[in-house]
């Protein structure tokens, strides 16, 4: 049977455990290093191609445009963006997607995938999905089980049925979902060989998922169905009804139905996966060198071992000296230094910062965001232009910008007009306006570009006042 | 005998070992934490009062105004600022001060003191200086010997004469200067009880110092004498002649004369001293709490021990989790994380950064300096004003400033004129100009204040151009 799979990208996580890189107001699935794609972009790319329909994304109100922008960056246009009025964990989010999908096709296949995981081998993943399709079409709730590599206490586990093959290349019978174990129990489970990690990736039809909620989760079903029915649609955005949504319980899909359902199957997957759940996982996934170190650009390791040095910005140099088993993450407004064994306590730190009223607990301080790393807000950049030269305008300079001359003389070409500006003069240019910037003088030209509109296309004329 | 002592404040150090707080272009003696005085200010205050003449400061060209400004901040006006055309270690600097001083009084008493040390007990220090005076007037070169508290390998030592009392409250005979020892030798010296630390603090007459150079350091004497004779004087600034100065050897006063002279004495001093020579010393001097931690404002320690967490800026939150014996120093453009036992390797790190071309090796990046902490450069600050309210203008807003309206409406009162500005309009106000800033509208007013002149007093009119 050849039918499209509808990817459901869950994009509502707050990613607090990767603070300060990830914060409530700009969580880790969106974070994009220079030149690299975000986790969301990676997830979207992974579920594109002949097997798949365009994805449905479930996210929060504040992130709806960011989702569109980031997906466009990897050539993906979602079929729909479901907007959660508030975060309600995975059960309501997945069920809402099922209801939205079943409006056009009640038997549509849904591949539910978190947007903040890393799966390096795209082909292996698509292959596993394809192999799981028949079982999902047969009416089972198929989950993907990761071959465990350590006695991790941070994940839930999947217990295989006695007849199952944990390393098989086809869906297996699943006995049950197991909640996060303690260290002893985790070690026992790993030793038995009968358990896989629960990665929160699922394949099923919309119909079967809704049926499972009918049977096991009516308390979720009723408000979510109402929130979808009363949703407000605008282009591809579907804003779930906030009144109905507010009555939906905050509950995971595992707890709501998977731990109760009997039509379960698991597709083993061993080609590599990480949820980048904490900084220790990031260290592990980043490929430590022979001494166990991971050092980003703009970081310098001297006599370190088993250490992650990560500067998120070209504006911050990070130096580590004589460190062992340390995670150091430097952003322009917040720095984390933690022992590798303690990275799960980052949430505590965020709570402590929130308690003391530090904005960095949840937000990035606008003034510190470099232009090339954050698509939102306001940027100011100091630019020096040598005498007699032309400044090469980067794409961000095509946005609406105030150009302030700090010293020297600037010749700015805008449409067909040439403006000469001296110290303390300024020029406001709407998006897309400026064509050329020259320093015609004999001294260095220093100017400040203050970008006031993140989105392009603003072309309204705005006059300026001058007072000496 | 009651005559004034002329303090010679040596203010030419680069302070590289306290990177990133201290950098070549703004070394540690000038660094001022919010509300606290700089080390230079502390040193100047320590040598003021009835015993002392106004100080002579020896510093580099780039720091001459900063010296004046910082001394004025503690009510001190130097009698002279000697400007070294380039750094040449302590021997030429001290000798130049002796020549400058002997122009008016060849028998003037000189108290040579580094400007970047900490001596908490000012009265004890002044008392020790007073007790050393007779010996200096009698023609000896008196050094101050710190009672050692550990087998430190980072300092030079002073070996007492056999008849000396290391804990006496009067100058003692000194056998010799000893260069920095290795760990074994340092332990032996501490055990013997015959050694004190050489803190680089001296008392002698200008005449006797010059005489010592005549006897032991003619290679220093000749160029330095010429550099003072051909110096260019401007108000209190005395710029040493660069041509003569360039031929002076780069040599410490210990090595040039103290290790050779026989008219030596030492005044023991046990009331507390630190050269803040590295981050470990800073940790020690900062008064660790019961768990051994030192945490600055804007830093948070969770499950740490024997650790320094130091954020230099209100704009950077620093968090440490599970750390033991770690130094973490966060500035807006550079972060150091080092094991406490490795802090002497910071110079290596600075060299590595210089090698890779990172400006942070030697400079502070202007764009990252917050307004309230740095007197130089360019500041941009985002300001929000609630509807119907007046924004209270801080002193820094009285500097020359571009005000850019990002959203809402601003009513700006300048002299007798009231200006209404809307989104994307801007207003340039010269220093001291703006009187009031109101939000007369119904929505929040968000504006950006870009300060382009650090020094006040600029009142020239500058027109602006506008292009939409």
Automatic annotation (TrEMBL), chains A, B:
Domain Nucleotidyl transferase: 7-286
One Pfam short name: NTP_transferase
Domain Mannose-6-phosphate isomerase type II C-terminal: 360-452
Molecular function GO labels: GTP binding; mannose-1-phosphate guanylyltransferase (GTP) activity
Tree of life domain: Bacteria
Keyword Nucleotidyltransferase carried by entry: yes
Enzyme class name: transferase
Annotated MannoseP isomerase/GMP-like beta-helix domain residues: 321-353
Keyword Transferase in annotation: yes
CDD domains: cupin_PMI_typeII_C, GDP-M1P_Guanylyltransferase
Keywords of the record: GTP-binding, Nucleotide-binding, Nucleotidyltransferase, Transferase
EC number(s) given by UniProt: 2.7.7.13
GO biological process, one term: polysaccharide biosynthetic process
InterPro entries assigned to the protein according to its UniProt record, in alphabetical order: GMPP_N, Man1P_GuaTrfase/Man6P_Isoase, Man6P_isomerase-2_C, ManC/GMP-like_b-helix, Mannose-6P_isomerase_type2, NTP_transferase_dom, Nucleotide-diphossugar_trans, RmlC-like_jellyroll
Catalyzed reactions: alpha-D-mannose 1-phosphate + GTP + H(+) = GDP-alpha-D-mannose + diphosphate
Stated family: Belongs to the mannose-6-phosphate isomerase type 2 family.
This protein's name: mannose-1-phosphate guanylyltransferase
């Amino acid at each position: 049977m050849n039918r499209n799979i509808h990817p459901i990208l869950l994009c509502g996580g707050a990613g607090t455990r990767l603070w300060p890189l990830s914060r409530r107001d700009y969580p880790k699935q969106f974070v994009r290093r220079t030149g690299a794609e975000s986790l969301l972009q990676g997830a979207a790319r992974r579920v594109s191609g002949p097997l798949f329909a365009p994805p449905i994304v479930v996210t929060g109100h504040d992130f709806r445009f960011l989702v569109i922008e980031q997906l466009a960056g990897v050539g993906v246009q979602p079929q729909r963006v479901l907007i959660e009025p508030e975060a309600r964990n995975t059960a309501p989010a997945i069920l809402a997607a099922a209801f939205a999908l079943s409006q056009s096709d009640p038997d549509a296949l849904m591949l539910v995938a978190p947007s903040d995981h890393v799966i390096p081998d795209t082909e292996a993943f698509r292959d596993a999905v394809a192999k799981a399709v028949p079982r999902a079409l047969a009416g089972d709730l198929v989950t993907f089980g990761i071959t465990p590599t350590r006695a991790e206490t941070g994940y839930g586990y999947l217990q295989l049925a006695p007849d199952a093959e944990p390393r098989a290349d086809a869906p297996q019978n699943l006995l049950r979902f197991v909640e996060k174990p303690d260290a002893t129990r985790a070690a026992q489970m790993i030793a038995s060989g009968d358990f896989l990690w629960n990665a929160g990736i699922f394949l099923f039809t919309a119909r079967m998922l809704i049926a499972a909620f009918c049977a096991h989760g009516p308390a979720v079903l009723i408000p979510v169905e109402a929130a979808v029915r009363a949703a407000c649609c605008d282009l591809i955005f579907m804003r779930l009804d906030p009144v109905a949504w507010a009555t939906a319980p905050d509950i995971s899909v595992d707890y709501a139905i998977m731990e109760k359902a009997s039509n379960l199957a698991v597709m083993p997957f061993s080609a590599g996966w990480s949820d980048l759940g904490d900084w220790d996982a990031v260290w592990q996934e980043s490929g430590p060198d022979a001494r166990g170190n991971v050092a980003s650009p703009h970081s310098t390791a001297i006599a370190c071992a088993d250490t992650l040095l990560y500067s998120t910005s070209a504006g911050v140099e990070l130096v580590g000296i004589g460190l062992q088993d340390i995670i150091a993450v430097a952003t322009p407004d917040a720095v984390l230094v933690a022992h590798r064994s303690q990275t799960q306590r980052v949430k505590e730190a965020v709570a402590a910062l929130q308690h003391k009223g530090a904005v960095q607990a949840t937000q990035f301080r606008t003034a510190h965001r470099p232009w090339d790393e954050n698509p939102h807000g306001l940027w100011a950049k100091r630019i020096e232009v040598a005498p007699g030269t032309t400044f090469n305008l980067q794409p961000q300079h095509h946005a609406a910008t105030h150009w302030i001359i700090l010293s020297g003389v600037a010749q700015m070409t805008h449409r067909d007009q040439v403006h000469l500006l001296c110290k303390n003069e300024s020029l406001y240019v709407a998006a897309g306006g400026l064509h050329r910037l020259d320093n015609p003088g004999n001294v260095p030209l220093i100017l400040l570009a203050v970008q006031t509109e993140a989105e392009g296309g603003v072309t309204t004329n705005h006059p300026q006042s001058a007072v000496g």
